[in-house]
Amino acid sequence: MGNKINDPIARLMGLRYKSHPWHGLEVGDDAPEVVTAFIEMVPTDTVKYELDKVSGYIRIDRPQKYSNVVPALYGFIPQSYCGDSVAEYCMERSGRKEIKGDGDPLDVCVLTERNIAHGDIIASVKPIGGFRMLDGDEADDKIIAVLRNDATYRGYNDIEELPHVVVDRLKHYFLTYKDMPASDLNIERPRKVEIVATYGREEAYEVIRCSLEDYKSHFNSLEEILRHV
Predict the structure, then answer these.
(1) Which residues are 193's β-sheet partners?
(2) Peptide bond into 32 cis (omega under 30)
(3) Is-contact 65 180, C-beta < 8 A?
(4) Which of 9, 15, 86, 184 holds its CA 20 to 30 A away from the CA of 190?
(5) How confident is the model at residue 85 (pLDDT cuts 50, 70, 90)?
(6) Residue 68 class from Cβ within 10 Å (0-12 exposed, 13-18 middle, 19+ buried)?
(7) Rounded CA gap, 207 and 73, in Å?
């Protein structure tokens, strides 16, 4: 997977404008085996950052009031969308009913031995599994990947090969990162978050495929994308 851009118009736009991380970056020719990940947060962040979907800039969501910090690089797969296909696959595999997609790009956690200083970067990663996570009645899958060519993690090809403590840390983060008192947030108590399954590489590939199909279905034209940004 290279960075070569063959379309002269795309090259010109790339010189003049920053690509929108969700809509302007390519997932990669080797997807789902190797995909591009846009990284929003790194393990040293004590503030939760996320993509502003309209501008494409990273914005502060909230300071992390408690001690839970993301234990891996965290972001999403460009040109993915959790819609009907992702929801249907979730219901098929979990046996749950009346699940819908969360309407966001597909989340990804990236394992690497190196300390990455900041987010707002792209990385080439290799998916090895994921968590089938439900946020209330919404499918909110978390793909687990390793940084391509990482000296320590590149040898892992499936989530079952990872040390249990690594998987447990990731699970703990996602099950607790929304645990904030409703009085502190000045909103109703958050919906129940649960991880109903941990799946391996092949299912991760299928979730990614579904999310890419959902993106194409949901954003079926430039006009449709512009209406959302």
Answers:
(1) 135
(2) yes
(3) yes
(4) 86
(5) very high
(6) middle
(7) 20
Q: Concatenated DSSP letters for the chain?
A: -------HHHHHHHHHSPPPTTTTS---TTTTTSEEEEEEE-TT-SEEEEE-TTT--EEEEEE--SS---SSEEEE-TT---SHHHHHHHHHHH---S-EE-SSPPEEEEE-SSPP--SSEEEEEEEEEEEEEEETTEE--EEEEEETT-TTTTT--SGGGS-HHHHHHHHHHHHHTT---HHHHTSPPPPPEEEEEEEEHHHHHHHHHHHHHHHHHHS-SHHHHHHH-
Structure token digits, residue 121? 């970067």
* 176-224 confidence digits (pLDDT tens): 877 655 445 455 556 789 999 999 999 999 999 999 999 999 998 655 6
Q: Are strands 193-200 and 73-76 parallel, antiparallel or unpaired?
A: unpaired
* Segment 18-69, tens digit of pLDDT: 889 999 999 999 999 999 999 999 999 988 899 999 889 999 987 776 667 8
- Spatial CA neighbour of 162 closest among 152, 174, 172, 176: 152
Residue 36: strand pairing partners: 124
Nearest by Cα to 120 from 212, 205, 25, 228: 25
Amino acid of residue 151: A
Among the listed residues 5, 4, 26, 19, the one whose alpha carbon sits nearest the alpha carbon of residue 124: 26
Question: 124: which 2 tokens?
Answer: 């080439």
